[in-house]
Specification:
alpha/beta, Rossmann fold, 7 helices
Length: about 250
């Protein structure tokens, strides 16, 4: 269904993986999408169309708070207020052998960088765009957490696990405070999804994992994007502060 006038969605980490799939799906659904990534976004990869007037690609690092504010102002001038934010950009550092740093190995640089990208940026981006949503009395925030934020992770380290658990708490805080303004905030917690990030652990680890998933496979970026698009939709208006597990039945709390 085409939404008139097209709502504006902002998706971070949109150059590849889940962010790219989400961008494509939201464009397909008729939204205007601001695709944010620190990497260059290939415009031909989005919605299969080289020129899409509903797509705005912005090369911004989500930890650059001034750049996020400047982008918000530019979007407001050209298109209007962003109504949907998908906080998807994240990093999951691995050592050369494909493993995460153990609890005794994590250094300050890793800890600070992971929290800056995976957690602090989620707060700063919410702070940047929530006032616009409040003004419009409608908004959706969809934060991408992880199975690693729900329970002990098999692959991710403590910095990533902590950041993703923090995202769940932040989501609940936003949901509680912003509900009265017609704004919902929800999180998704994907299990292993076949993207570049998952490949950091190597194909063997992924195969081994698939054998332990009830549906016997890893998830796809498109499957995750479908859940994000649902939580961003009008129909999902009574879902607030929820966590949607997307893991093939690997984890059933
Ligand atoms: N793939 C999985 O198995 C899996 C599982 C659980 C959760 N997740 C989460 O899903 C989300 C997307 O993961 P993915 O697998 O598509 O990852 P990915 O690594 O394939 O893509 C992440 C994108 O984020 C961008 N990015 C990273 N740091 C950034 C920054 N500082 N500023 C702007 N952009 C930045 C990268 O350039 C990249 O394009 C992440 O939040 C991740 O933690 C992934």
């Amino acid at each position: 269904m085409k939404i008139e006038p097209a709502r504006i969605a902002l998706v971070t980490g949109a150059a590849r993986g889940i962010g790219r799939a989400t961008t494509n799906l939201l464009l397909e659904k008729g939204y205007r999408v601001v695709a944010v990534d620190r990497a260059t976004i290939d415009p031909t990869s989005s919605a299969g169309s080289p020129v899409n007037q509903n797509l705005w690609s912005a090369s911004v690092d989500v930890t650059d708070h001034a750049a996020i504010s400047a982008l918000r102002d530019e979007i407001r001038k050209r298109w209007g207020d962003v109504a949907i934010v998908v906080n998807n950009a994240a990093i999951s550092p691995k050592k050369a052998n494909g493993r995460s740093a153990g609890i005794l190995e994590i250094d300050d640089q890793e800890w600070q960088q992971v929290l800056a990208v995976n957690l602090t940026a989620v707060l700063k981006i919410a702070q940047a765009f929530l006032p616009g949503m409040q003004a419009g009395n409608w908004g959706r925030i969809v934060n991408v957490s992880s199975l690693a934020g729900r329970t002990k992770s098999i692959a991710a380290g403590a910095s990533y696990m902590s950041s993703k658990a923090g995202v769940l708490a932040l989501t609940r805080a936003i949901a509680g405070e912003m509900g009265p303004f017609g704004i919902t905030a929800n999180a998704i917690a994907p299990g292993r999804i076949l993207t570049d990030m998952a490949m950091l652990s190597g194909p063997e680890a992924n195969q081994l994992h698939a054998q332990q998933v009830p549906v016997r496979r890893l998830g796809t970026a498109e499957e995750v994007a479908a859940s994000i698009a649902f939580l961003a939709s009008e129909e999902a208006g009574f879902i607030n502060g929820a966590v949607l597990d997307i893991n093939g039945g690997f984890y059933m709390p």
